[in-house]
Predict the 3D structure of the following.
Amino acid sequence: GENVEQHPSTLSVQEGDSAVIKCTYSDSASNYFPWYKQELGKGPQLIIDIRSNVGEKKDQRIAVTLNKTAKHFSLHITETQPEDSAVYFCAASKENTGFQKLVFGTGTRLLVSP
Amino acid sequence: EPEVTQTPSHQVTQMGQEVILRCVPISNHLYFYWYRQILGQKVEFLVSFYNNEISEKSEIFDDQFSVERPDGSNFTLKIRSTKLEDSAMYFCASSEEKNGDEQYFGPGTRLTVT
């Protein structure tokens, strides 16, 4: 089955710096890669996603890149702010049929210091 | 903005007891999921549900677990005889038919088995 690896496990940056979180996946059939932000005591919140037919997607300060050949994808946050501090999870799934399970990475705890 | 809701937020139960965790998915969504997250670990898929039947389940989802959509709004997870290792955060998620991959998570129920 699919296995998703994520690193780093923790990341500390200064406000205004950029943060990059990387994930690799094992199943070449995976074609949907969402990123979730989880704040303390809350459920994962979908922040951005990418499908395998594109290599990059951007939404304001966040962007995701996908390298299908290498089977890795990354989350980029620019101009980080203290409210970006949270645990970020990458995930992968196959097909686009609606009821495919998400396989999550182990999470990255991002701390943005003022 | 519509959101997934879950009750209770925290459930404490004794080993061997039955628990029912409740979820109200987003109203126009047709796919429903349960995930769990043991403290400090990754989010793990338990089961997906569509058209009143289970579409996929993980090895974690054994005979002690069951899901039900008892009416048009609720989606429940029942654990028949809880074990200590069932202690975790349980997240409900839902997705719509058109963009079924985009799963939206509830805030979770923290289950503590003593």
Summary: The two ends of chain B are 37 Å apart (CA to CA). Chain B has a mean pLDDT of 92.
